[in-house]
Amino acid sequence: TSASPHARPIVRVRPLTCTETRRGDRRVVHSLGDGAVHVSAARHDATFGFSAVFDADASQEAVFEGSGMRQLVEMAIDGFSCTVFAFGQTGSGKTYTLMGPLAQSETQPASPALLGLMQRSFACLLEQSQSRGSDLALSASYLEIYNEQVRDLLSPGPPCTLPLRWSKTRGFYVENQLSVGFESLEAIVSLLLQGSQRRRTSAHALNRHSSRSHALLTIHICSRAHYSPNVVLQPSACPSKQGTLCFVDLAGSERVKETGSSGELSVEANSINRSLLALGHCISLLAKPRGKWTHIPYRDSKLTRLLARSLGGSGITLMVACISPSSRCLSETLSTLHYASRARRVTTRP
Q: Which InterPro entries match (predicted)?
């Protein structure tokens, strides 16, 4: 098909926190409706346009229905490579948007109203597979990139480091990663919660539960068309389609001075910021007209290698920019909005 915008950026503005309200922070971000968001502060007055903007009072269900997530699930079943990634400053609500409350576990499930894009997508995927009457084989893999090491979050024992390889047929891939089959909503949610609990997190001045790694959960969908038993067909006439639905929870960008990080936390922050910078650089180059591309430096980080297919190849991507409305977070908020604006200009051939 002809080239089409494949990076659909949406914006979610979280509410002011109790700490921010007590401190007297002003609200400098306002939704204007129709996908427009306005930032107004001293020396800064800017309006940005996106596919959709969700204000602080938007429910998790509203974000799922209004983001185009349901269509993305359907395209993954049809054999497309689909990616959702949440990005923004640390503490801006990325993990909450994707997964829901941090306190949930298998013994303490979250309230259904608070579940994030991931669980809602899993439910949609399983509903679709039943209603379509096709044979779907579903499996999941779950990785984190911590200090430029790729680690498997589903393999038994402590997370083990896996090598990242490249081949002409597969592109960049992780060698020996565990892929676990599932057939029910309970099974895939259990894998999600198990893996998430093994992910590296720490507390600092901006966020008591800061993700210190980028996490990628990929659903592999292999579908085989259903044919009437009365019709005899050659095996080659029963094509299978292989799609993927990848959820990427990026570690938050942060200024070490603001978070008060030192020692190991500071090393982690620098590693996170370097990989996010590499991702931003790739997106900036991809946003240029196709004839002006020279070289897209996917090899600059493990993150950009793993997202190469989603960003510049044959994938379809939903980008969820999470921002704080607080005056104190103004510079990071503007940075996130500029990042998302550039992504709107990236095109692909899915």
A: Kinesin-like_fam, Kinesin_motor_CS, Kinesin_motor_dom, Kinesin_motor_dom_sf, P-loop_NTPase
Q: Assess if residue 340 is contained within a domain.
A: yes
| Whole-structure pTM value | 0.87
Q: How does strand 171-174 pair with strand 164-167? A: antiparallel
Residue 296's SS3 state is coil
Domain count for the chain: 1
Q: What is the pLDDT of residues 191-225, one digit of tens each?
A: 999 999 888 764 544 444 556 789 999 999 998 76
Q: Is residue 163 part of a domain?
A: yes
User: Quick one: CA dihedral 104, 109, 115, 116, positive or negative?
Assistant: positive
Residue type for position 39: V
Which amino acids are annotated as binding site, given as ranges? 88-95
Is the Cβ–Cβ distance between 29 and 328 less than 8 Å?
Answer: no
Q: Which domain holds residue 214?
A: 9-103+112-228+239-254+288-344
Strands across the sheet with 29-33, in order? 29-33, 36-41, 44-49
Q: Annotated binding site for ATP, which residues?
A: 88-95
Please report the pLDDT score of residue 201 as a whole number: 60
Q: Are 195 and 51 in contact (CB under 8 A)?
A: no
Separation CA 17–CA 127 (nearest Å): 36
